[in-house]
Amino acid sequence: MKNRKVTDFFTHTCGCRQPADYQRGVGWAVPMYDAGPVNDLRARYVILGLDDSGVADVDFRKVSYDREAEIALAHDAGLPYLDLYKESLLTGRTHQHDHDLLQDINAKYDYTNQAASFLARS
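The structure corresponding to this sequence follows.
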């Protein structure tokens, strides 16, 4: 994988296609796809190896963690959208594009006004 552009990696490894601008190196593209049910619930991250020319290596990693302990921490911290967070940790299912559901939750817990108040203080 040495000395390959990230866009080349995504195109050839993931089978993803970026707009021509991304393939010419004008910007970054991240593959987005519907992978269906998530069977591997380990945390995921990527390490980018950089050199003088840019990204020299891409190393995807996964690590196991205690999901129940994470849910308890989120509960104790008063994390907003706790039910959705819990569902995503336990099943891999996310709702970030379910605008109707998010709008209902925002109204139920007054998250929109809470966010506006928080931003006004910043």
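The two ends are 43 Å apart (CA to CA).
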